[in-house]
Specification:
Elements (H helix, E strand, L loop, with lengths): L31 H7 L1 H19 L17 H4 L9 H5 L3 H32 L3 H12 L6 H12 L5 H8 L13 H27 L3 H9 L4 H25 L7 H8 L6 H4 L2 H12 L2 H29 L7
Length: 332
């Protein structure tokens, strides 16, 4: 038997009081191939998602080169002549870049902010319901607008706000009030578009938050009730803090598409009504009108490049701020 003083250092037990010898050996890095062989089932399950992203997300990125080329069908993507930043000029020369960028950002901030608040409120409201059938009926009614197409929504809005025979003006005439020219009043469309967006997406968005609430351990609520907590105190001190990581992650995902407006929503509700462009024109609708008149693929790619770069910078910036506040909520 070896004496304690002569025993090799690698065989000694760690000293609890001094902490000496308590450093655990670092795990050996065996490489990606070893990990793939060890967890081949998990990697096999990941394979469809990787293929999807390569085909539909990374491979189309090669099309960004068109933003710097004068594309023509004869030479193709790679042989068309380079034009530098000429494709970006139409955004700035037209003087519309400030208006459409501001409208896009403001609308999306409203959609993300109010959308998140209303969807969380709906999820909390559904989770607190005790009546089984009333809960299912409420959830179905809130989810129903998600299945309504934007074309049908546009027709629905037109029949409400049409000046001559719309429901709103018919109601106003019934009470001997002056009819309202909604399609000639730009500012009011900020509220109309926001309200219909929230109405359409509240049921779909609340499902994610409702799933997060349902995953909370019921022992938290039982402990709260034993301490005399009310329903509102349970929501404030248990529900909202525990679903906050889900809220932050979805917020970061939505920030990435801040410059990508809801083209279907805006175009179906507004169309080519020039009277409303000041308050409702966003980047997507502006580019659509420009491209349908000029058929310039390079200009469309330039706008897509501009949107993507700005969205990336926003995600990185917001993620950095969140990481400074609470690193556990950061996306990366």
């Amino acid at each position: 038997m070896n004496a304690v003083g002569t025993e090799p250092a690698s065989n000694r037990l760690p000293d609890i009081k001094t902490g000496r010898g308590s450093i655990a050996p670092k795990p050996k890095n065996r490489g990606l191939l070893y990990e793939m062989k060890k967890n081949k089932v998990l990697f096999l399950m990941l394979l469809p998602a990787v293929i999807w992203f390569i085909v539909f997300a990374y491979f189309p990125m090669t099309g960004l080169v068109l933003a710097f080329k004068n594309y023509n069908y004869t030479d193709g993507i790679f042989n068309s002549p380079w034009v530098g930043f000429d494709n970006f000029k139409f955004l700035f020369v037209s003087g519309a870049i400030y208006r459409i960028t501001t409208n896009t950002i403001v609308y999306n901030f409203v959609f993300i902010g109010l959308g998140t608040v209303t969807q969380i409120a709906a999820a909390v409201f559904l989770s607190e319901m005790t009546g089984k059938y009333f809960k299912k009926l409420s959830q179905s009614l809130m989810f129903l607008p998600y299945f309504i197409s934007y074309v049908l929504l546009g027709a629905f809005v037109y029949n409400i706000f049409n000046f001559e025979f719309g429901s709103l003006n018919t109601l106003l005439k019934t009470f001997n009030l002056a009819p309202m020219d909604v399609y000639g009043t730009p500012w009011i469309w900020k509220y109309i578009i926001s309200c219909f967006y929230l109405w359409k997406w509240i049921g779909y968005g609340s499902i994610i938050y409702l799933a997060a609430i349902m995953s909370i351990n019921s022992e938290y609520y039982e402990a709260g009730r034993m301490d005399g907590a009310t329903v509102f105190q349970e929501i404030r001190y248990i529900t909202l803090p525990l679903i906050m990581p889900t809220v932050v992650i979805l917020f970061l995902f939505n920030i990435g598409s801040l410059l990508r407006g809801q083209f279907d929503l805006f175009y179906q509700l507004i169309g080519d009504n020039g009277n409303l462009f000041e308050a409702t024109d966003i980047i997507d609708t502006y580019v659509f009108r420009a491209l349908t008149r000029s058929f310039d693929i390079g200009m469309g790619s330039a706008v897509g490049f501009y949107q993507s770069v700005f969205g990336l910078l926003l995600v990185v910036t917001v993620n950095y701020i969140i990481k400074k506040i609470n690193s556990e909520y950061a996306l990366f």
